[in-house]
Design a protein that fits this description.
The protein has about 210 residues and is mainly alpha-helical. About 90% of the residues lie in helices and about 0% in strands. The radius of gyration is 33 Å and the shape is rod-shaped. The N and C termini lie far apart (about 75 Å). Mean pLDDT is about 80; it is low at about 200-205.
Length: about 210
């Protein structure tokens, strides 16, 4: 369990660090968006148009890094959820085993009639002590059944969370692909503009 806790702690630290990096990249993305809008507004010359395209390229590159960090964070979260599922399932199996043992004990006790139990015990106090033991076992059994029900609900919720994170990962991967394609497209626009207008700055301003 200590090893599991240390792994969870490492996952939480990694998630926290990725969140910090994502926030930093999101702030950069907002700045790039503002710069692009500003450059587009004054794009009256070739240099300004190229500058606007360069800003757009930088913005897309930022978005690609940002999405990569989100993918990394989602992968760590998926790993953490899978570990939680494994541990919860292990606990459920352990509790099922304990419940089975308690049921066997109670079944054996139920098969003994009251008179036989009284005769077998040397004193009434011994009989009463055994009766108390049975009651304690019953109480423990009820408690374990309640815990088992809670663990199963927790397992189901964690599995749902895992499924959601896997869907997030698919969407982020698709977003990453789209951003990379956009980056290639904008770089192509910039290169085409440089080639087609080379030496035509004056014409471009008309």
């Amino acid at each position: 369990m200590l090893g599991t806790q240390s792994v969870w702690g490492a996952n939480e630290d990694r998630i926290a660090e990725l969140r910090r990096q994502i926030e930093e990249l999101e702030n950069q993305a907002k700045k790039y968006q503002g710069d692009i809008a500003s450059e587009r507004a004054k794009a009256q010359t070739l240099n300004n148009e190229i500058s606007a395209l360069k800003k757009e390229i930088s913005g897309l590159e930022n978005q690609i890094v940002l999405t990569s960090k989100r993918i990394d964070k989602t992968k760590v979260e998926i790993n953490s959820l899978e570990e939680q599922i494994f541990d919860t399932q292990t606990n459920i199996n352990r509790q099922k085993g304990t419940i089975g043992e308690l049921l066997i004990f109670l079944s054996h006790r139920d098969n003994e009639n009251l008179m036989a139990t009284l005769i077998k015990n040397e004193s009434l106090s011994t009989f009463l002590a055994q009766a108390q033991q049975v009651e304690n076992v019953n109480n423990r059994l009820l408690g374990l059944v309640g815990e088992l029900r809670d663990k199963k609900q927790e397992l189901e919720q964690t599995r749902n969370n895992l499924e959601g994170k896997k869907n997030d990962l698919i969407e982020l991967s698709e977003e990453q692909t789209a951003k990379k394609l956009s980056l290639v497209d904008v770089k192509g626009q910039k290169n085409n503009l440089l080639v087609s207008t080379k030496g035509q700055e004056a014409e471009y301003q008309k």
